[in-house]
């Protein structure tokens, strides 16, 4: 027994040379307590898989995000992931003008996922979240091929060559001003160039409850641009209440269903889903 112990100790002190290149590896040092400690190279290691990073390209730019998580500090990352999912769903739809029924459903589903994850909006103490200029990225109502959405508006098509440019909302929470601004290009007979116009529909607004906004129409101001930019702005007369169509009462309301520093989702009184980003 003593001879076997001596032989084992000798092997530990002087390991045999490697047969592949006749070189000896560095000596292995062992320490024994109640149980032997294996060399580092022999230990089992468990590595957690790295979280994958996804990249999505869209018309709103190339952005990177992590897969959504559901607990702790990952809740913020999940919200950002759902925001990007909505943006990538509605981008390329030309504000909704070329949206198909499938596109409308995908946008609706993505918006509901974000609204549910973020929870109800309460603007009673955070009305300043609406402050600023917002660019319309998508409106489900534009799929009707009317610039008024589900309300009366200029049709888009071959009979009237109207091209919709950028659409904005400018909100001032102090003066309660609420302006819808649309850039429109109207075709003209050859050889005249198209007429570029910026129409501003001025409203006042008030908060109803926690997240509903009521807007009251005041006037429409038109400003030409491009070759006719020297023409001063002018107001379009408003129809008297007695002859104004009942479908255009001059007031409306919508609910803010999601808002943060860079994105806003609203639901109109006629079922319109709109997605805005900070301009």
From TrEMBL:
Residues 1-42 are annotated as: Disordered. GO terms for biological process: chloroplast organization; defense response to bacterium; response to ozone. Residues 1-13, 29-42 have a biased composition (Low complexity). InterPro entries: PAP (IPR039633), PAP/fibrillin_dom (IPR006843). One of its GO terms (cellular component) is chloroplast. It holds the Pfam family PAP_fibrillin. It comes from the Eukaryota. Its main location: plastid. It is found in: Plastid, Chloroplast. Keywords: Plastid, Transit peptide. Residues 81-276 form the Plastid lipid-associated protein/fibrillin conserved domain. Belongs to the PAP/fibrillin family. This is Plastid lipid-associated protein/fibrillin conserved domain-containing protein. It comes from Arabis alpina. The lineage of its organism: Eukaryota, Viridiplantae, Streptophyta, Embryophyta, Tracheophyta.
